[in-house]
Amino acid sequence: MESYDYPQPREVRHPDLSFGGGGSIGNPGNTVQVRDAAEKECDERAGNPIVMTTGNKIESTVDFSSAGEMGLYLRRTYNHYWTYPGLFGLHWVSSFDYSLVPQGTSVLWAQRPDGRRIKFLWNAAQQRFNEDKAAPLAFIERHADGSYTHHTEDQTLETYNANGYVQTLTNPHGIGWTFSYSDNYLQTVTHTSGRAVSFTWTNGRLTGVTDPAGKLYLYSYDANAFGAGRHRLATVTLPGSTGQPASPATLIKYHYENAAFPGALTGISYAGVRHSTFSYDTQGRATASQHAGPTGAVAVHGFQYVGTLTTPVNPPPLPPPPGGECDPVLHVCAEPRPAFDPNADPAELARREGIAEAAIAILSQPLALSQVTHTNALGKQTVHTLSDGHITRSDGLASANCTASWTQRQYDAHGYPERFTDANLNVSHSTFNARGQPETLVEAEGTALARTTVFNWDQTHNRPNWIEVQGDQRQSFEYWTDGRLKKQTLRNLSSTGTPNDDRVTEFRYTAHANGMVATEVVDGPLPGTGDAITRTYNTQGDLIETRNSLGHAITYSQFNGRGQPGRIVGVNGEAIEYDYDARGRVRRQRMFHNGVATETTHAYAASGLLESITTPDGVTETHTYDTARRLKTITRNTPDGSVVRTLTYDAAGNITQDESTLAGQLIARSYTDYDELGRVRARRGNDGQNTRFEYDPNGNVERIRRSLGGDTVLDYDPLNRIKTQTDAELGITRFQYDAADRLTQLTDPRNFVARYDYDGFGQLWQYSHPGTGTTTHIWNTAGQRLSTTRADGTTISHAYADPLGRLTTTTYGSGAQALVHSFTWDTGTACGSGKKGRLCRIDDPHQSLELGYDAYGALTLQRATIGASTYQHRYVHDDLGRLRLIEYPGNVLVDYIHTLDQITAVNVSLNGQSRPLVTGTQWYGATVIGAPALIRHIEHGNGGYRDEYFDLDQRLFGMGSDVGHGMGLEFDANGRVEHLTNFADGNWSQGYGYDDMDRLKTVTSNLGNQGFTYDANGNRQSHSQGAASSVYAISAHSNRIASISGALDRSYSYKPTGQVSQIIGALSTTANAPVFDPALATPAQVTASLFANGFESATTPPPSYAFTYDRAHRLSAITGPGLNAHYQIAATGLRVAKTGNGKTTHFVYGLNGQLLYEHDLSNNRRTQHITLNGQPIALIRNNTPYWVHTDHLGRPELLASQTKTVVWRARLTAFNRSVVTDTIGGYHPGFPGQYHDEETGFAYNVPEFAGEARAGACQGAWLWWLSG
């Protein structure tokens, strides 16, 4: 194919639909990626950017864009090699620059907005011009009146008048643009919707463009820069808005400082600040691009070329210019004759014209490049070998931190990619038909993992019929007669699941009289129309409503001319309003919590960059930038002074240092190092931490090194997926995948194999592991999981009696013993004003949970009925939507007081009387132990305080108080705690040693030294405490403990699904351990566990335990001699009740898994748990407040009363705790989410996922840490 390719953005492909909310049917003007006219890949461009295969400098920008199908937009692109006159003069081409020009009677040239000029040849048999390629799709018809119709590859119709000026562009659905002219000067481009862009001309120059919103973009020129009447684009003024917040106009100036090439763009300035600079050689090839940095040039890219000049053969004539004077016979249009300028110097004009013509002559000589060397901003050199305008080989030269590498490409006879060999010698092979449509792609060719994708085409309409990943899935498409998508079918080609099962989504449309889409219905795979979504559009193409089958609707209104909505109202009436500036950027956002309007504002600088954001709480975040337009500082006002975050960059724009100060004091800092390819080479801290990364030739991380050793090594398969991971102890984990990159097999370092069987839809049908047996799932054709069968034969069934396909019941087992969980959506007296689309009620045999929401979705009510008791938590949010008050059962109200965006005080109301829990909080920077630190000071309502100390790595390294609680932490260079100093009593201090896997290996302390060893999977093999030691026997068939011998003598039995069913042997031994507690006159006798992963039992441990589980496989009972404990787990996955030896306690957890409330029914004792920023701060027990002091892991260590008396204290070690003071009847939280069950000595742990209450369909995972 002969064509003259002037590298530019790829021709815009207008998709049929965009399913994004808040706008309209999509507009590619916002997202189309800049590609040069020869459709080079992104890796054939570098710098800012420069096309390496040609040496062409391009620069593209979108001045404005409007929403909608075929939405109007203005994209301008500088193209040094494009020397024809367009709307913006020489070297500039725009999204409105379409034209045709004949060359004799048998050739037509089509000018594209991306800079290409495509050749069409007359075909006498077909009586039309066909594109000059092997199997053309595009063709041009010439009509009797001399006008033309261009049928493009993507089925767009373009019409042109006899002189080649574009008249209309129409997509296959009849939507498009209409161009109008006056004396061949473009005046308007009007969309089918009626929206329009208008053009203002002054003396033959385009000086103004008015966008569809009526905003004016101004353009000025260097007059006669290329000779008489030939001007050069000099500045662009993007419109601004008056008033506040600031949004001034932005002046963009283009620099042309190369005397030999007057059209060569040499730089760009924004608001008077130089941003970029470009250099050229004597052939007009771009040799360098750089940005202006704060202390010198940054982002510097250099290019060196090797090649020869060739002579152009029969170059095409000029396209018709703006205002062209056209030959009525030949229909070739010349530039309009310039008006006489009495002030112009004819000699000077002639000189300029001569220079310009000489430059054009040089640029018109094709360059046959054979090699280009690119040096990137970090000095890395890559040598590219070229053939026929393609990069065929790339050699990355070795550098300080990068090894040498090479890749290779091959192309077929038509110039389409055929074979790519990556730097690891993996080969991808693709085939294209003669029309340029891909037919096959084989990745990892020649290996056992070869993956083949096949494409089948409707060649006439240039659209896919189906795309198949062999052995996995086929996606097929059907279309309506107007080309819109009618049906999308996904077929399972995997042997897993139901082979050849289809999942179908259908699309239906109606249209307005003007042809714009009126409604679009997307009906998913559920039977009937329950999952159908209807989108409604106005006659201008704006999305005005999205509605589901239940009538839940989101509405959009108050559109500006660009199609941006000014008001969005959600399904529950929640409204968000937007004001936009003249360029369509959000200026104000309003919300209406509690019916009160609050506003967030955005201010912009004259540079066009975001300058500040001010939120309704009074916080303003201000941004500054360096001359390279990189974000330099972010400043926020806080109650304690300004926080300033400062970013430092390397020459490539990677952040190398991130530093924060508070009121001028340094409080945080981190470092990142990069190699010459811009990959993270190391992450460094402020205390010797240095994690380093090494890469294989393909850029995959292959080794992770840490400061104190302990490397992790990764190996990859031919599809660049992790194949093996070798840990620091040389344990190897192996991974296998299916054709869609889903994990199908994991072999751990002990060679236990976990298998996952997925179908082509990505649905897991079976999972097996030696520890849990085999679990099987069944799915329906709509993609809903119907049932799960576990290794013990237990079946879980799911029902979806909801029009939208949401889960309504989960049944564990069958018959009279079945356990049923029910879920109610959208309705309920407690569900409040925000009920639509939300889970309102969860019922199970243990709890009925009602939930309420406000219109914006914030939780307002949580009412749990457990047995005969009802516990209600009410949440009140302020006008900014922040949580302000929680009302607990028992008429306890906790009020959070905000200053700016921080909680600075907490009050509690007990029996109607308000009392302070937190009277103030303060953050400040200071020097602690000779180093900068951040300190958080909390004033408690009892007159006490808590101080927390954070180092520059934002690690908590110390705590202090005035109630006998305090500790300091020291870290090793791997960031692990190596010493903990207890300031209350030095005997409680501890030192820690680790293996290379960061597992605790030794503990040294006056409380007793401990030692631990582990197997390759991390299972504990031994534990010693003082002279006593125990050996752990791990099952040869799983990772479960079979028995413990030595100081502890214990054996374990398990269910087929992996849960422990019986333990024979005591959990711990009893010893008289010295406990040094300042609150005690003499040491206390405690039960010291020699089994290091648990709490001590409140009573003598029984000799054996039996474990019972409900139908959902959640622990329901632990029994043994003298022990009878029962547990109730709700559908939320959270424990709501327990009964231990006749004593019953009810629990209420928040939906985030935090414990809110306890009710001990044996003595009617009620406990409310209060948090501050997610951390425990206090508890209320029987209307008496106590203040909580935790360690660095969040474990409570001390409770203080109103008089600052210590009423509860625990001695904390690595895994254990011993309660040494308790005058309040027990306090049981341990690690975050953990609750100590004193009746057994075990610890209940909140599941990682709180079950179906969160996801609606997920089964909560129970983690019962059984003292090991």
What does this structure look like?
A hairpin with a 2-residue loop joins strand 92 and strand 93. Helix content is 2%, strand content 50%. Among the domains are: 3-377, no CATH class; 389-470; 480-537, no CATH class; 723-799. The model is unreliable at 1-41, 1071-1096 and 1249-1268 (pLDDT under 50). The longest helix has 18 residues, at 346-363. The protein is built from two helices and 103 strands. With 1268 residues, it is mainly beta.
* Cα-atom radius of gyration: 36 Å
Name the beta content range: over 45%
Number of helices: 2
Give the overall average pLDDT.
91
Distance between the termini: 72 Å
Helix content: under 10%
Form type: globular
Main beta sheet? 93 strands, antiparallel
Low-confidence stretches: 1-41, 1071-1096, 1249-1268
Structural class: mainly beta
Keywords:
disordered N terminus, 2 helices, disordered C terminus, globular, 50% strand, 1268 residues, mainly beta, five-stranded antiparallel beta sheet, 103 strands
Brief rundown of the structure:
The chain is mainly β and 1268 residues long. Among the domains are: 3-377, no CATH class; 389-470; 480-537, no CATH class; 723-799.
How does the SSE layout of this entry go?
Blueprint: E1 3-4, E2 45-46, E3 50-51, E4 56-65, E5 73-79, E6 92-94, E7 99-103, E8 107-111, E9 117-123, E10 128-131, E11 139-142, E12 148-151, E13 157-160, E14 166-170, E15 176-182, E16 185-191, E17 196-202, E18 205-210, E19 216-222, E20 232-238, E21 250-255, E22 267-270, E23 273-280, E24 286-292, E25 297-309, E26 325-326, E27 333-334, H1 346-363, E28 367-375, E29 381-387, E30 390-396, E31 405-411, E32 417-421, E33 427-432, E34 438-443, E35 451-458, E36 463-469, E37 473-479, E38 485-492, E39 502-511, E40 517-523, E41 532-537, E42 543-547, E43 553-557, E44 567-569, E45 575-580, E46 586-591, E47 598-604, E48 610-614, E49 620-625, E50 631-638, E51 641-649, E52 655-662, E53 665-674, E54 680-684, E55 690-695, E56 701-705, E57 712-716, E58 722-726, E59 732-737, E60 743-747, E61 753-758, E62 764-769, E63 773-779, E64 785-789, E65 795-799, E66 809-812, E67 819-825, E68 839-843, E69 848-853, E70 859-866, E71 869-877, E72 883-888, E73 892-899, E74 902-910, E75 913-928, E76 931-940, E77 945-950, E78 956-961, E79 967-971, ...
